[in-house]
């Protein structure tokens, strides 16, 4: 207290910390100062902190990282308000997956995202206006004149720390099958020219999945990887396709991107049984049309646990793993001292719980995570009522 201030601004005391990034699963107190984690120990004295929150009996995790959401609120008809959608789920970092392209991302960067507390990052859609007009013209890549790979790469290079790569939707309602290969090749070029990642939506692809995977390398992301459409991860005998196995060997990231309609429980169960769990868990959060069932991050972690992922692995796929995909593993995704002061506190509730998918599948589990408290930048930004 040499400067007249307590050693810590905030102390989460008495909780069970699950931080796969540090290999911690046990009792730890977590302290924060000046927006960062300042100490982690089995016991930190109460008198050293300006504010103390008792989290005894609760699970403390790093702030969750949602690798696929749509947060350009007001910029597209389906984008959510990030603070409303994320903070009450324990999410402190969200990656917008292509809501905007080169023609309309400026307002997202300069006005919409800075108006939120959640840390918001973005991928540029390979189409110039992203998802702004897709519903009115029957697909955002129905006209390939909307693609300028060189300009897309230039804008990514000009916005380090905000733009992390390129998004393209290989989906029948996004791009005509006769244009799909060209659109994918242009997205690949933009990612390569900007030395950034490429995220490809593969659910409902008009071209074979192996063709898409062939173009992807280390650090690229297959989102909606666990869908149940014709071109999914399993072959005709229910085995994980060799092209999928080869892609993961190359370091391709297999992301959930749930969205309600892009996740099949039975496909996922079989894939996990074969030792192929998701690399990352994400929501594809958006305003869904009537009748669509969507889940948030705190619901997906126990859902994947019920499908066979150890809880620690499911938390890692929601924290340290997506942080590493973004190259931010030294900043977010863990509660190591010196890292961003982001944490999520949950009640770990035992008892029957079930989840469903849009094809009629269901899974029963014995655990759920009920959000209690979210810390962002060392401050409590959300509490359960």
Please characterize this protein's 3D structure:
The chain is of the alpha/beta class and 385 residues long. It is 22% helix and 28% strand. The chain has 11 helices and 17 strands. Strands 8-9-10-11-12-13-14 form a 7-stranded parallel β-sheet. A 6-stranded mixed β-sheet has the order 3-2-7-15-16-17. Strands 5-4-1-6 form a 4-stranded mixed β-sheet, with no helix packed on it. It is globular, with a radius of gyration of 21 Å.
Strand sequence of the main sheet, in spatial order? 8-9-10-11-12-13-14
Fraction of residues in helix? 10-25%
Low-confidence stretches: none
The helix tally amounts to 11
Shape: globular
Query: What's the β-strand tally?
Result: 17
Q: Nearest-angstrom radius of gyration?
A: 21 Å
Mean pLDDT, to the nearest integer, reads 96
Structural class: alpha/beta
What descriptive keywords fit this protein?
385 residues, alpha/beta, 7-stranded parallel β-sheet, 6-stranded mixed β-sheet, 17 strands
Describe the structure concisely for a colleague.
The chain has 385 residues and is α/β, with parallel strands linked by helices. Helices cover 22% and strands 28% of the residues.
Secondary structure blueprint with pairings:
Elements: E1 8-13, E2 16-19, E3 24-27, E4 29-33, E5 36-41, E6 49-54, E7 59-62, E8 64-69, H1 82-86, E9 91-97, H2 105-112, E10 119-125, H3 134-137, H4 149-158, E11 163-169, H5 180-193, E12 197-201, H6 209-214, E13 221-223, H7 242-249, E14 253-254, H8 265-273, H9 297-306, H10 311-316, H11 320-325, E15 343-356, E16 362-376, E17 379-383
Parallel strand pairs: 1-6, 2-7, 8-9, 9-10, 10-11, 11-12, 12-13, 13-14
Antiparallel strand pairs: 1-4, 2-3, 4-5, 7-15, 15-16, 16-17
Helix pairs in contact: 4-5
């Amino acid at each position: 207290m040499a400067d007249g201030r307590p050693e810590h601004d905030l102390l989460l005391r008495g909780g069970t910390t699950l931080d796969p990034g540090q290999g911690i699963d046990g009792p730890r107190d977590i302290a924060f100062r000046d927006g960062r984690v300042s100490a982690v120990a089995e016991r930190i004295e109460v008198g050293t902190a300006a504010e103390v929150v008792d989290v005894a009996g609760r699970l403390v995790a790093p702030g969750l990282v949602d690798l696929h959401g749509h947060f350009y609120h007001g910029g597209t008809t389906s984008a959510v308000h990030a603070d409303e959608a994320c903070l009450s789920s324990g999410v402190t970092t969200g990656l917008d997956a292509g809501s905007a392209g080169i023609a309309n991302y400026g307002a997202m960067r300069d006005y919409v995202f800075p108006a939120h507390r959640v840390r918001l990052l973005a991928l540029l859609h390979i189409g110039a206006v992203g998802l702004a007009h897709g519903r009115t013209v029957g697909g955002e890549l129905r006209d390939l004149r909307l693609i300028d790979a060189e300009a897309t790469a230039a804008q990514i290079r000009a916005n380090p720390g905000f733009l992390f790569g390129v998004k393209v939707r290989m989906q029948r309602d996004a791009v005509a099958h006769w244009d799909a290969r060209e659109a994918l090749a242009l997205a690949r070029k933009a990612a390569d020219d900007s030395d950034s990642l490429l995220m490809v939506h593969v659910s409902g692809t008009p071209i074979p999945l192996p063709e898409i995977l062939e173009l992807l390398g280390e650090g690229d992301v297959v989102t909606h990887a666990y869908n149940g459409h014709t071109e999914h991860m399993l072959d005709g005998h229910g085995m994980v396709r060799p092209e999928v196995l080869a892609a993961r060997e190359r370091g391709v990231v297999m992301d959930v991107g749930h969205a309600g309609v892009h996740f099949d429980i039975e496909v996922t169960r079989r894939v996990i049984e074969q030792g192929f769990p998701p690399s990352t868990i994400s929501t594809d959060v958006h305003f869904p049309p009537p009748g669509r069932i969507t889940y948030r991050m705190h619901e997906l972690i126990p859902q994947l646990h019920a499908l066979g992922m150890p809880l620690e692995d499911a938390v890692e796929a929601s924290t340290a793993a997506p942080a590493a995909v973004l190259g931010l593993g030294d900043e977010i995704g863990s509660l190591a001292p010196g890292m961003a002061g982001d944490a999520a506190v949950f009640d770990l509730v035992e008892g029957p719980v079930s989840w469903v998918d849009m094809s009629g599948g269901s899974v029963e589990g014995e655990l759920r995570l009920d959000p209690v408290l979210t810390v962002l930048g060392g401050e409590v930004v959300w509490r359960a009522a």
